[in-house]
Amino acid sequence: MATAIAAAAATAAAADDERAGAEIAYGGEECLKHTFELLEEMGFPKGILPLKDLVECGRVRATGFVWMKQKKPSEHYFERSKTLVSYGEEVTAYVEVGKMRKMTGVKSKPVFFWVAITEMSIVDDPNRKKIYFKSSLGVGKAYSITAFMTGEERIKFKEIKDGKNDDVDNDRDGDNVDDKVKTTEEKSLDN
């Protein structure tokens, strides 16, 4: 019992150390602004982390450690990638331009079972930009970056590509930030 208590105290101390020197934002509006600024700075589209009811967000610039806390877990269905993603109460990662690594709190259900997503990275393909998702199993999959863009971002992307990007022109899911978002609680009520 004493060993378990000591281990819990060590884990809490490590988490505090990990967050030392952090810039912290509180409240939904401030956290959303903070999250969008972070995603833009790192080169990710705003729709990649459609978190709901944010209460706290933090960033340690020196180490790249970030966290986002929601009131409760939520799920989001990305229509274009046909993937259900679960976001825990807290999502953490180490960020750098074009990459989020050592992620926690994000799981994907591509078919029958949940798989933890541990890394996301931007892949510049000669034909189009993609986001590669790596799982805790060591395997991953890449999707077009437009599958995670807001409608406004897609318009800008299309303008930049001067209308030559078929992926944007054939986009089927519209503004996916609002796509079929359900909290875990709402999902269980459906069943």
Record keyword descriptors for this entry.
191 residues, alpha+beta, ten-stranded antiparallel β-sheet, globular
Describe the structure.
The chain has 191 residues and is an alpha+beta fold. Helix content is 28%, strand content 38%. The radius of gyration is 17 Å and the shape is globular.
Lay out the secondary structure:
Layout: H1 2-18, E1 23-26, H2 28-42, E2 54-60, E3 65-70, E4 74-78, E5 83-96, E6 99-109, E7 115-124, E8 129-135, E9 140-144, H3 151-160, H4 166-169, E10 181-183, H5 184-190
Antiparallel strand pairs: 1-2, 2-3, 3-5, 4-5, 4-10, 5-6, 6-7, 7-8, 8-9
User: Per the principal axes of the C-alpha atoms, what is the gross shape?
Assistant: globular
Specify Rg, calculated over alpha carbons.
Answer: 17 Å
- Secondary-structure element string: HEHEEEEEEEEHHEH
Helix/sheet category: alpha+beta
Largest sheet: 10 strands, antiparallel
